[in-house]
UniProtKB/TrEMBL annotation:
InterPro entries: 6-PGluconate_DH-like_C_sf, KARI, KARI_C, KARI_N, KARI_prok, NAD(P)-bd_dom_sf. NCBIfam families: ilvC, PRK05479.1, PRK13403.1. The active site is at 107. PANTHER family: KETOL-ACID REDUCTOISOMERASE, MITOCHONDRIAL. It catalyses: (2R)-2,3-dihydroxy-3-methylbutanoate + NADP(+) = (2S)-2-acetolactate + NADPH + H(+); (2R,3R)-2,3-dihydroxy-3-methylpentanoate + NADP(+) = (S)-2-ethyl-2-hydroxy-3-oxobutanoate + NADPH + H(+). Residues 182-327 form the KARI C-terminal knotted domain. Substrate binds at residue 251. One of its GO terms (biological process) is isoleucine biosynthetic process. This is Ketol-acid reductoisomerase (NADP(+)). Belongs to the ketol-acid reductoisomerase family. The gene is ilvC.
Length: 332
């Protein structure tokens, strides 16, 4: 088992009295900024005046400035805007970042795929919470923490790792455990996970199951409950206690169906495709494609997104969820 750091491993001096600029105030940015402020750090949020985040961060009681201003005199600058905006943002702010500062990422995309070639005098680190920002904030407030990955790309003062660990501690990550990795490992596994399993794989499984039942003449509402709504129960059991706990809570019949039918749905050819997807991540094909799509105005991306939103499962789901307003309380 690799070493997993906890609160006792943190050298609080590494970030003592540090001024931290958080660039971006979305999912991760808001959670990091508020958690770090509550942990006693001097936090400034860097967002454009024209956007919605500016007023939002102010309303949350934080110091706010344009990114180029926010980075001035900051000891640590966290890049927490969408991945494909960070290259331009880095160009905008780099002239104002002081010598020897630390820049931090929550995902390794831009460093690993060489979109940002960081100045040589900077520490370059990664703290990637393994969960969405809403959860990073909520768990911190509950005295818990989302496990996080730590990586160092450039270490100019032999303090980079200690600084990153102190930052992880400031957002609550050390309560859940901090595991060291490399920018390459974090980037490639994160992309693979979201493509093949968490986002791409899981939603496609749900939608294809729903379609199969509806096309066979079953009520869409019943298909929705079965293929989407109930998934949470299974995922919670997996999350809490792995395959063992999941199996303890499902019926004998469900277990037999799982063991004999599951491998027919996700089969050898699925795994072969997963390996292909991983290769496209590793050789940079996925990154090149996504960067080109973004540059070309996201035409395909927008079209596919619209098709997802217009799917029958969404129409049926929206109606059924209206009856369960409490579902909105757990928003991540
Ligand atoms: P968001 O999409 O939530 O970021 C939105 C924020 O970025 C807003 O404050 C927005 O400001 C600002 N922003 C958007 N476009 C620009 C731009 N062109 N220039 C300057 N600011 C801009 O980002 P996430 O939190 O999802 O992701 C941030 C980083 O964290 C990424 O590297 C991501 O991979 C990583 N990460 C994300 C996770 C997640 O759960 N979302 C999980 C783990 C890592 P405005 O209001 O002005 O538009
Ligand atoms: Mg990701
Ligand atoms: Mg999908």
């Amino acid at each position: 088992m690799p070493q997993i750091y906890s609160q006792k491993d943190v050298n609080k001096k590494a970030l003592a009295k540090a001024r931290i600029a958080i660039l971006g105030y979305g999912s991760q940015g808001r959670a990091h900024a508020l958690n770090l402020k509550d942990s006693g750090y001097d936090v400034v949020v860097g967002v454009r005046k024209s956007g919605e985040s500016f007023a939002k961060a102010k309303k949350d009681g934080l110091e706010v400035a344009e990114p180029t201003e926010a980075v001035k005199n900051a000891d640590l600058i966290a890049f927490l805007t969408p991945d494909l905006t960070q290259k331009d943002l880095y160009k905008d702010v780099i002239g104002n970042i002081k010598q020897g500062a630390t820049i931090l990422f929550a995902h390794g995309f831009n460093i690993h795929f060489k979109q940002i070639k960081p100045r040589k005098d900077l520490n370059v680190v990664l703290i990637a919470p393994k969960g969405p920002g809403g959860l990073v904030r909520r768990q911190y407030q509950q005295g818990r923490g989302v496990p996080s990955l730590l990586a160092v790309y450039q270490d100019v003062n032999k303090q980079a790792k200690a600084i990153a660990l102190a930052y992880a501690d400031g957002i609550g990550g050390t309560r859940g455990g901090v595991l060291t990795t490399t920018f390459a490992e974090e980037t490639e596994t994160d992309l693979f996970g979201e493509q093949a399993v968490l986002c791409g794989g899981a939603t496609e499984l749900v939608v294809k199951g729903f379609e199969t039942l509806v096309e066979a003449g079953y009520q869409p509402e019943v298909a929705y409950y079965e293929c989407l709504h109930e998934l949470k129960l299974i995922v919670d059991l997996l999350h809490e206690g792995g395959l063992t706990k999941m199996h303890q809570f499902i019926s004998e019949t469900a277990k037999y169906g799982d063991l004999t039918r599951g491998p027919r749905v996700v089969n050898k050819s699925t795994k072969k495709e997963m390996k292909k997807i991983l290769t496209e991540i590793q050789d940079g094909k996925f990154a090149r494609q996504w960067i080109a799509e973004n540059k070309g105005g996201r035409k395909k991306y927008n079209k596919m997104m619209k098709a997802d939103f217009n799917h029958k499962i969404e129409k049926v789901g929206a109606k059924l969820r209206e009856r369960m307003p409490w579902l909105q309380e757990e928003k991540a």
